[in-house]
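User: quick one
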Amino acid sequence: MTTWVDACATDDIDDEDLIAWHHGGHRYAIYKTDKGFFATDLMCTHEEESLEEGLVMDCIIECPLHGGRFDIRTGEALSAPVSIDLKTYPVKVEGGRVFVALG
Amino acid sequence: MPDVVPTNAASSGVKLDKKSLKAIAARSDRPGLVYLVQWSLGLLVTGAAVWWSVGTLWMWPAMLVHGILLSVPSYAMSHETAHGTAFRTRRLNEAVLWITSLIYMEEPLHRRYSHTNHHTHTWHVGKDSQMPFDTPMGFGGWIAEITGFALLRFHLSVFFNLAIKRYTPTMRAVAPESELPKMTRNARLMLAIYAAILAAPFFGIWWPVWLLVVPRILGAPVMLLFTLIQHVELQENAPSILESTRSFRGSPITNFLYMNMNNHVEHHLYPQVPFHGLPALSDAVRDQLPEPDPGFFRTNWEVLVVSLRRSMGLSTRAPSIRQAPHMISDGGPVRRIAERTM
Ligand code: FES
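Assistant: Done. Structure below.
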């Protein structure tokens, strides 16, 4: 069953940026883009690197270690050296809060 | 716990607030395009000097200058595009990676993947696939490195192995399986281009020899003097980039040729920062880093003297460059720490 979990306030995240969110022993990335809010796993699929200090450009997140890029909306691995997609999670915004669907 | 801890700012205890980092790492096509225009204009001028001096003694200094301008920026730009940071537009980045890797003479995806490994395991023995010489370095190692023949032999073996689909354990370790066929295709195409260049004189066409082949051979040692001092004499197997990597003071000429990579510690700490952001990054983290070593010439001179003295069994303390403690000895036999991996 899907559970919507309150993750952060909409203005906790700068425009074109992300924050790391820890919940239930797992690490997530929550993004604010000009296309809305999105959530993915926080760790890159190439090596053990957090995307927290990565650059958000439009709807792309670039890994800070080797520059692999993912589509934030779909998690698709877009460019080398990443080749495995990033897991994504549905997001909704209500009353100035960002909720992530888990489970 | 992750089984790999990448060597970067986190492993080195260096901190920079996210807002500043984001501003410094911002991407743009403009600085890279401006660089390409300046570089191309420079090559036009030095190429013209070679063209007009062929047949005179002046052709040799002209080819040296042209070769430095061909070799050092092609190394620097292929490195920057391998990181994907030279341009905001990915296609532009990849096209420039291909062309500059052709000049630098390494298959572009091999360049990218072996370099990702170098960043994850910077100067870690048996893990870093880009350790170009044995450590500690002696005079023989210096000669093999600086003439360019050791690197050329390595890059040619990579080309031939890729071309015949003989993928080495290192290639398989650093590159995803799905990329290997692309690497083979690139290697075959590049080898065909090199073969055409080498065959041209047999058809009476000599300009590739004077404008590409000889300048590239003459320029290689200068390019390798830049890369040599990135890690030489520093600490192997250190989690901290501050111990394994060297920055040196730049000048307008070296900063241009090397695309600000004299800030090499800063680059390894935050590899997502593009070449045009490195001076600002250096300012932002200066108080957390060791002093940069002296300029290009002084640093290289001290490295050469130390290598020579080490081979002669003499003491190896350099006057001013940073050295790992085990690199400094009063003389005597040298205990090898790392064997070259390229
Ligand atoms: S760890 Fe993310 S691209 Fe390599």
